[in-house]
């Protein structure tokens, strides 16, 4: 993803201050320093979730806004939000930075609202990701589940593990498959005895994620606060920027 982001930044004629990676040899630095932060306008992060609290603390300390495209840290969301809201910086985070996925989420939300009026239909979801994907279910799948629960009058609980029993009416089953080199496929099924409606988002490559992250980086400069990317998309549509 770092290379994808670099390609988008170069195409949009932005200057890259430093490419930071603790492992890749061609990186410009192993870690973010105060000196590097002082030369940059914003940080774009695609990383593992393991040390995210430490990285966010550095962004706040160095006074540099950030786009956090790392996933798998929802359990620490409240703590990180509090840290950012006490700082002087702005942060955009999200489970998926694809503009297409954000459109897909809106379609899923509306579909869940509609079929809530038709008890003949059940709703379920599944995702497929490449074998190196670190989290399961993905942050994207969790967002899909949350959107469905917000709109559906019966579903109020998400089940992600294997079921050895009949699913309950109030449960939403989200299954995850990992293997191969699939960039990412997410499907929501609206199913009745008579027919099936299928909503699917397929990622062709990762350039769309990079473009979304760069768009968020352009937007967050000069702003303060903690923003989710799907809300940033809505704000950009409302204000035209």
Write a structural description.
By secondary structure, the protein is an alpha/beta fold. It folds into two domains: 130 residues, Rossmann fold, CATH 3.40.50.720; 104 residues, Dihydrodipicolinate Reductase, domain 2 (2-Layer Sandwich). Helix content is 38%, strand content 20%. It contains eight helices and nine strands. The strands form two sheets. The protein has a five-stranded mixed sheet. Strands 1-2-3-9 form a four-stranded parallel sheet. Helix 1 crosses helix 7, helix 3 packs parallel to helix 4 and helix 5 runs parallel beside helix 6. The radius of gyration is 19 Å and the shape is elongated. The model has no long low-confidence stretch (mean pLDDT 94).
Outline of the structure:
The chain is an alpha/beta fold and 241 residues long. It contains 8 helices and 9 strands. α1 (2-11) crosses α7, α3 (52-62) packs parallel to α4 and α5 (99-115) packs parallel to α6.
State the main characteristics.
alpha/beta; elongated
Provide mean pLDDT, rounded: 94
CATH topology of the largest domain: Rossmann fold
Low-confidence parts, pLDDT < 50 over ≥5 residues?
none
Q: Summarize the amount of helix as a percent range.
A: 25-40%
Structural class of the helix and strand makeup?
alpha/beta
Q: How far from one another are the termini?
A: 25 Å
Query: How large is the count of helical segments?
Result: 8
Within the largest sheet, what's the order of strands?
A: 5-6-4-7-8
Per DSSP E runs of 2 or more residues, the count of β-strands stands at 9
Task: Using the CA coordinates, give the radius of gyration.
Answer: 19 Å
CATH superfamily of the largest domain: NAD(P)-binding Rossmann-like Domain
Shape: elongated
Number of domains: 2
């Amino acid at each position: 993803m770092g290379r994808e982001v670099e390609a988008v930044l170069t195409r949009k004629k932005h200057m890259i201050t430093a490419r930071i990676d603790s492992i890749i040899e061609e990186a410009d630095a192993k870690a973010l320093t105060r000196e590097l932060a002082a030369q940059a306008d914003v940080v774009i992060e695609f990383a593992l979730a393991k040390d995210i609290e430490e990285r966010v603390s550095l962004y706040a300390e160095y006074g540099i806004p950030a786009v956090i495209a790392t996933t798998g840290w929802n359990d620490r969301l409240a703590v990180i939000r509090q840290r950012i809201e006490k700082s002087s910086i702005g942060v955009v985070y999200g489970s998926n930075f694809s503009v297409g996925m954000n459109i897909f989420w809106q379609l899923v939300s509306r579909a869940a609202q509609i079929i809530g009026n038709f008890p003949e239909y059940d709703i379920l979801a599944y995702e497929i990701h490449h074998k190196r994907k670190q989290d399961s279910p993905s942050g994207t799948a969790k967002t899909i589940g949350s959107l469905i629960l917000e709109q559906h009058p019966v579903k109020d609980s998400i089940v992600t593990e294997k079921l050895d029993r009949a699913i309950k009416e109030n449960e939403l089953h989200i299954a995850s498959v990992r293997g191969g080199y699939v960039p990412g496929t997410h499907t929501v099924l609206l199913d009745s005895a008579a027919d099936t409606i299928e909503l699917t988002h397929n990622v062709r490559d990762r350039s769309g994620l990079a473009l979304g992250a760069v768009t968020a980086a352009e937007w967050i400069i000069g702003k303060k606060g903690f923003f989710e990317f799907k809300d940033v998309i809505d704000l950009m549509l409302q204000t035209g920027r």
